[in-house]
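The record is passed on directly below:
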Amino acid sequence: MPQNVLIGLGSTFQPLNLAIILGGIVAGMGFGALPGFSATMAVAVLVPVTYWVPPESGLLLLGAIFCGAIYGGSIPAILLKIPGTPASVPTTFDGFAMTRKGKGAEALGISTFGSALGGALSGVIMLFFAPLLAAAALYFGPPEVMCLAVFGLSVVSTLSPGALIKGLIVCLFGLLAATVGMDPVEGYPRLTFGMFQLMGGLPLVPVLIGLFSLPPIVRMAEEGLRSYMLPKVEGPVFLSWPMFKRTWRIFLRSSLIGIGVGIVPVAGPEIAAFVAYNDARRISRDPVPFGSGNIDGLAAPEAANCGATGGSLIPLFTLGIPGSAPAALFLGAMMIHGLRPGPMIFEERADIGYTVMVGFIVTNVLMYFVGAVICRFTLRVVRLPQTVLGPVILTLTTVGAYAVGGTMTDVYVMWAAGVTGFVLERLGFPLSPICLALILGPILEAELIRTLVMFNGNLWLVFTRPIAVLLFALAVVMFFGPLVAGRRAARA
């Protein structure tokens, strides 16, 4: 193995491959920073480029784009409260609050370091422990994935502090919206109102764009431009040593959470970010409330969503099972070059397998420095006059929503979601539970159906599977834990 690692290092540091990695990082950041252009879309658009380069160079390019896009989504999330990708939604909670306090540079520094560390650590785990972790992923069948979705939904109690009932209401509303489309069993359209464009369900990215970008624009116009001016943001983007000592534990913990969630088929960076945010909220000792600029609330999802990037590639390279949509595109690119993903790749083409894994670590290390440089220029965004910034945001969100499917239906969905989000926000309802429900709802429904088929309709048999029982128990603790803690604090 040491010899193979050295081969991977030598191949990665070839001038062509280094240039490809740097170009992929920048391109991925560009895709991720634009609302609507998800990491999956970024990888899909550039898969054809891999036809013209050697296999290892093509896979290094896709890995750099994947990592860059997940990280790039945090930039508009922090500066403008617009998540560039679904995995950046939890970043908006505390990242934008720090920007409004004039700490946008510090927030970008935390995001950049956390993303690079999470991705690099996932690469190290992939390099040395991939077979062991992939074997563990085989124990996740439909019952386990269903309980994992339930565990993710239990986060709603911490995403709705002081408004649990309202949080549950909007979560149920999101689950209802997630059922729009074709019934997975009978193939009958549900809640489509005769619109064939909705047969595939509500498009997730336009809904998220509308929920999180249009309400701030309306608020800017309503409150007056002067009252909504962001403070001047200055300072270094690189993470300072005192801040590193303050956050290294949460970075490490959340990175491991992201890797663990990433190796589970169907789960991805979005679920990892929410789970890590909830975990950080549970253990944080920072007196700053979450949602008001808490540093742990920013560091946790950024480390987790990038940790899930490498985690989702572990079952791909060791078992041939993609752990996420971008990983599935990796699978297609490998097959185009005649590579067979699975354990034999380390025997038949060890040079390519180890080059990709070593290159994944190098990619995330380089991403820290590239991101810090690019973020210095993006800080100028908050200095733009709001009369310019508002129309620019509106234009980018509209173009981004249209780019998802290339139809005006996605734009109409975005506008409908924006109006709904503004009304709910006005009535004091939190918006994040809707996002969580839209992401996890389809997974929960699909795995519930598979579980019912698997157990002939007897759901009680789920409790005969230890991992499912553990996840369900954790979901109960996660949901009721904040309620019990809040009641004890009130009595004290």
